[in-house]
Amino acid sequence: MRLTRVIAVCFALGCLLHAIGFALMLFGVELYGAGYPAWRHAAFVLADALIAYLAFRRPERLFVPLLAFLIEQVAVNGTFAWRAWRTTGAVAWGVPVTILLISAAMVIAAREHRAADAIT
C-alpha cells in the first residue's frame, strides 16, 4: 500500500470527524468544548476532504496543502499548547503528535512531488 493512501484515509477520517462535530452542534453537543466555532468544523471538512482527495488522486500536488495545514496547526494549536504548558506545565500531547504526523506526511508528499518531477 502506498503511504499516500494512508494519508488519504487519515484525512478522510478527519473530514468525517469534523462533519460529525458540525452535525452534533445542531443538537447542542460540543465535541471540542464550548466556544469551538461551527465555521471551523465546516472549514476543516473542506480542508480535510481536499487533502484526502489529493493524497488519493494527485499525490504529487499534496505538499503545498499539507504545508498550509501544518502552518495553521502550529499557529492555532501550537500557540494554545505553548500557553497551556507555560501556565500549567501540562503538555497537550495531541498537538506535538499531530504536528509530527503532518510533518511526516509532508516528507511523503515531497517524495511524491520529486518522483513526479523526475518523470516529466
Question: Topology, please?
Answer:
Blueprint: H1 3-25, H2 38-57, H3 63-88, H4 94-119
Task: Provide a quick synopsis of the model.
By secondary structure, the chain is an all-alpha fold. It is 79% helix and 0% strand.
Count of individual domains: 1
Q: List the secondary-structure elements in sequence, H or E.
A: HHHH
Distance between the termini: 24 Å
Query: Per the principal axes of the C-alpha atoms, what is the gross shape?
Result: globular
Structural class: mainly alpha
Spatial extent as radius of gyration: 16 Å
Q: Strand percentage, roughly?
A: under 5%
Overall helicity: over 70%
Total beta strands: 0
- What is the count of DSSP helices, taking H or I runs of 4+ residues? 4
Largest sheet: none
Low-pLDDT regions: none
> How much is the average pLDDT?
94
- This entry's quaternary arrangement is single chain
Descriptive overview:
This protein is mainly α. The chain has one domain. Helix content is 79%, strand content 0%. The protein contains 4 helices and no strands. α1 runs antiparallel to α2 and α3 (63-88) packs antiparallel against α4 (94-119). The longest helix is centred in the middle third of the chain and has 26 residues, at 63-88.
List keywords for this structure.
79% helix; 120 residues; mainly alpha; 4 helices
